[in-house]
Amino acid sequence: MSTQPSRASRRIHRILVGFDGSAAANEAVRLALDLAAMLDAELTLIGVLNNTKLFESAEDEALSEQDAKASFTEKTAPFVERANQLSIIMSTIPTSSEENPADLIARHAQAHGFDLIVVGNHGEDQIFHGGLGKVLEKLLRHSQIPVLVVPAHSSHI
Hints:
By secondary structure, the protein is α/β, with parallel strands linked by helices. It is built from four helices and seven strands; from the N terminus they run E-H-E-H-E-H-E-E-E-H-E. Strand 2, helix 2 and strand 3 (90-97) form a beta-alpha-beta unit.
């Protein structure tokens, strides 16, 4: 008797996309939309809005967080519209945290039963480490959920 899960139990039902508004993140969402349509899967876009300690006051920080959430909503709106056209169940989660985005994404995926994480090959910060962004490298090393990495100029499916 095989200890491998059956093909049906390994089916992808829920896809989590790490989104930061970069070209690579946009390609990751496009591919995830295609996958969700093909697999009849639910899709969630998570944006990690890092709070930095560069603000002069709590009021400045609150305004910046509001601006970041508004920007996230604006940048994800075309994808939400496309998901509706494709009858894909899709949600967006702008999260505010000083936690490393890789940790937050991996923890969220594990805690909420996602089957696949989709991310762009590098993000807005453009901080590279060994050819990969630091966030991506950490996510690949520590995630218990499979991670699909999409290049910025993908010619997918």
